[in-house]
Amino acid sequence: MTKPSRSTVASRHNAGRQKQQELYPELPSQYHLGDKEVDLQFLTFIELHACNPIRSEVLGYLGNHPEQPVSAKEIAREIGRSPRLVHLELYELALWNIVEPALQNDKRKFRLSEQQATRDLAIRFALAMAEASD
Fold first, then answer.
1. Does residue 2 sit within a domain?
2. Is 132 a member of any domain?
3. What is the DSSP string of 93-131?
4. What pTM, to 2 d.p., does this model score?
5. How many other CB atoms are there within 10 angstroms of residue 112's CB atom?
6. pLDDT 10s digits, 82-106
7. 38 occurs within a structural domain
8. What is the CATH number for 129?
9. pLDDT of residue 53
10. 8, containing H or E segment
11. Total structural domains in the chain?
12. Contact 55, 92 (CB under 8 A)
């Protein structure tokens, strides 16, 4: 099986975002379910970006270390996963602009996006994961 090109993956990503906007053009940020308030942006973030255990752990780690650029190997060591699998998840998160890749001392590192709304959602996700594990 051949790996899709970066442009193919990017075009799929853009098509997905466009479809999401077509399906939910007026998606409110908050929704009330009885007396409970549901944060639809947070729920959508989890559904789209924390859709498997490894990616959830990667997002949780990055949300707990938002300013620190880290390599896939460092994250893998901390969460107990394969560096190759972690790198694949980081690549996917980079396509969604959740993380930003950067070179530091000739090593590829990743950190949360500078986009404040995205950072806030990732940090909230990390806090929710930590709370759930307590």
1. no
2. yes
3. HHHTTSEEEEEETTEEEEEE-S-HHHHHHHHHHHHHHHH
4. 0.72
5. 24
6. 999 999 999 999 999 999 998 888 8
7. no
8. 1.10.10.10
9. 92
10. helix 6-23
11. 1
12. yes
Contact 83, 73 (CB under 8 A): yes
Max CA distance (Å), the chain: 53
CA-based nearest residue to 61, from 13, 108, 122: 122
> What six digits make up the tokens of 65?
């270390």
In the chain, % of residues over pLDDT 90:
44
Q: Work out the pLDDT band at 9, boundaries 50, 70, 90.
A: very low
Residue 106's pLDDT is what?
86
* 24 occurs within a structural domain: no
CB 41 within 8 Å of CB 121: yes
Instruction: Give the residue numbers spanning the domain of 113.
Output: 53-134
CA distance 40 to 22: 16
